[in-house]
Amino acid sequence: MIFFDLDGTLLDHKLSEYLGVKALYKINKEYFNVNQNEFYHMWCNISEKNFRRFLDGELTFENQRNERIKEIFALSGVKLSDDEAEKSFKPIYQVMKIIG
């Protein structure tokens, strides 16, 4: 049996997340009154909180993903539906999928 350590050893999740969030910011920066670095730090806090909710069984994996998008936009007063959140997540997902 072979085990692989995927927490940054073989795949750089943080880099792919950063580049995906950067893409999300660039596409939607007119909604946010913060710079790209502040946006990324806000994203990380929101992401960590909602991923914990997923691990605690409060949300499905898809729900926690949509909640992150909805919450980051809500900071700017923009309310997204689940469908809009799913569409808004695509830049992050595409970059993370390409990079690994």
Task: Describe this protein with a few key phrases.
DNA polymerase, domain 1, mainly alpha, single chain, 100 residues
How would you describe this structure to a colleague?
With 100 residues, the protein is an all-alpha fold. The chain has one domain: DNA polymerase, domain 1. Helices cover 68% and strands 0% of the residues. α1 packs across α2 and α2 packs antiparallel against α3. The longest helix is centred in the middle third of the chain and has 20 residues, at 36-55. It is globular. The protein starts with 12 loop residues before the first helix and ends with a helix. The mean pLDDT is 84.
Helices and strands in order, then pairings?
Blueprint: H1 13-28, H2 36-55, H3 61-74, H4 82-99
Helix pairs in contact: 1-2, 1-4, 2-3, 3-4
